[in-house]
Amino acid sequence: MSVPLQALWPVDRAGRHIPVDPAEDELAALYAYPAERWVRANMVATLDGAAHGPDGVTRSINDPADVRVFVLLRSLADVVLVGAGTVRAEGYSLPRHRPALAARRSAAGMPPTPRLAVVTRSGDVPGHLLEGDRPALVVTCRATGRETLARLAERAGQDAVLVAGEERVDLRRALDALAERGLGRVLCEGGPTLLGQVAAAGALDELCLTLTARLLAGDAPRVLNGGAVDVPVHLAHLLAAGDTLLGRWVRHEPDAAP
Asked: What is the torsional sign of CA 249, 255, 257, 258?
């Protein structure tokens, strides 16, 4: 069930309510992509930084407000980029949209749903994602091996396999390849390892982060996991629904004013 949202920031929007709307026109305007080529990430975390619940999936820490923005962000993207481990753990299916969101995409000249792109070095992608008229794109590298690459191409189609890199996936090359296919507005849904790699490659433009009112401790990964990165960002907007906070953080360019 969708819930209304309230703007907290910027100041000129503070207190403004964003009611539930099947087409989500007001929310879509708030989250519009700034450019035709832009890498946005969307993640959820507890207040103490856990990126998933004790069961290892995000469903146990998100809530209706997070789901509302999650669905909206997918409706704005050309492609949803996700790591194969997250695909398997979260039980991903190919993206679908309710009619009002699909109609708004079609009116903008977009396909009814975004493409799914799965990043994998091993080539281990669930078979149901490689079926249909618009199977998932498999973003991989040469180290996957000829036999695996051939199997993926036979299952999903040669055009659905993007080889970017030799020993591991080169995310810069992968994003270039997606953009060449007209898939420049990227929504990265993680998991934390993939998002850390995107940030380390200098390719992350924006992070949409939901903070839910939970404290979990334990050893769950952070939203970005892996080697150290340093990406200065600024707060574009902050929404609230009860105790849940939903922020949109955009990368500072080196010469940008705060």
From this structure: positive
DSSP state letters, 32-86: --SSSSEEEEEEEEETT--SS-TTSSGGGT--HHHHHHHHHHHHH-SEEEEEHHH
- Extract the tokens encoding 217: 């401790």
Query: SS3 for 108?
Result: coil
- What are residue 146's phi and psi, to 5 degrees? -60, -40
Q: Is 225 helix (H, G, I), strand (E, B) or coil?
A: coil
Length of the chain: 258
Strand blocks (E) in the chain:
5-9, 17-18, 38-46, 79-83, 115-119, 137-140, 161-163, 185-188, 206-212, 233-241, 244-251
Residues 83 and 121: beta-carbon distance below 8 Å: no
- Interstrand relation of 38-46 and 185-188 (parallel, antiparallel or unpaired): parallel
pTM for this prediction = 0.95
Give the mean pLDDT of 142-163.
Answer: 96
Amino acid at 216: L
Q: What percentage of the chain exceeds 70 in pLDDT?
A: 97
Quote the tokens at residue 42.
């969307």
Cβ-based neighbours of 202, under 8 Å, separated by 6 or more: 172
C-alpha distances out from residue 67 to 100, 105, 151, 237, Å? 16, 19, 35, 18
The pLDDT tens digits of the residues spanning 42-70 come to 999 999 999 999 999 999 999 999 999 99
Instruction: Give CA–CA dist 115/64, Å, rounded.
Output: 24
Indicate the burial class of 73 (C-beta count within 10 angstroms; 0-12, 13-18, 19 or more).
buried
CA dist list (Å): 110 to 36, 134, 179, 183, 207: 13, 14, 15, 10, 23
Query: pLDDT tens digit string along 77-94?
Result: 999 999 999 999 999 999
